[in-house]
## 1
Amino acid sequence: MNHSQTRIFARRSAMQAIYQWQLTGYDLVEIERQFVEEHGLGHGNPAYFNELLHAIPNKLDIIDSALAEFTDRRISEIDPVERAILRIGAYELLYRPELPYKVILNECINLAKIFGATHGHKYVNGILDRIAHKSRAVEIADSGKN
């Protein structure tokens, strides 16, 4: 499995763990322990899973503020699966500049297609695309030149 694939697996696992955290409010360390024991991360990137699981709740106010600017409802009213995906995407757009915005959007759309509601991927795409245009304007402008 290459580096990109291990990050995809870590992102997918983190989405499921963040979903669990959103619904239960359990301690993140306990969720991580339980998730690793039950699901393992042998094919993933445990460090990236750990980063997403812990950094997103730690930066939740900033992430949710970035999302709220472009949502049509309160963050708490967004479907919990799409909310977890949006939080991962917003985190990556804001805090992982080495990851191309197109990769982030594509991976989050794929997660929404697999785990979200029927048209949830369109909602996820719309919100994250707006955040990308605001937070990654230079990168987006440069990609249009190629």
Note: The two ends are 29 Å apart (CA to CA).
## 2
Amino acid sequence: MAQHLELGERGEALAAEFLIEKGFQILAKNYRYGKAEIDLIVKKDIFIVFVEVKSLTNLRFGMPEIAVDKKKIFLIKKAADNYVYRNDWHGQIRFDIVSVIFRANKTEIMHFEDAFY
């Protein structure tokens, strides 16, 4: 497997553990709809949260969360609409980003709630 894919999988696994520790319930991982994919779909209280996970090993080109561009947001929203429809969800939804930075001696995880609309 390509190194960047392994990094992404490790980041998603750590993000899932992090969210579980914060009281979220994992509903789906790598949910696909057409060309769109949502890394994690989680639930807490009245919210279903669609989570994009971004992982990096260096910050030469900026923080991981800035890689979520307009095209990615469009695709996430498209897949989220499908998930909401297929599951007949009538509650609140939210879009979050979890940033995972792998450093030599530690891993840093940041959670951005309501990252986009």
Note: The longest strand covers residues 92-102.
## 3
Amino acid sequence: MKGILFVLLAGVAVGMLLAPDKGSESWKKLVDGLDDVKKKTMDEIDNLVAKGKDLASKGKTAAQNASKAW
């Protein structure tokens, strides 16, 4: 996952720096692009945390049910 994010960030940076815009415009686009990547990354982390909590809850329930069967 880290490798994909690094490649994505590097691609955004290179693309923005090679664009035919003025420097200030390129930097603004770069920052905006990085903000978008940050937001998407945080959303994905939130989704993974939610899935992890759900899985832990299911595991806890299964363990409780198994202990009652003993």
Note: Residues 60 and 66 are 10 Å apart (CA to CA).
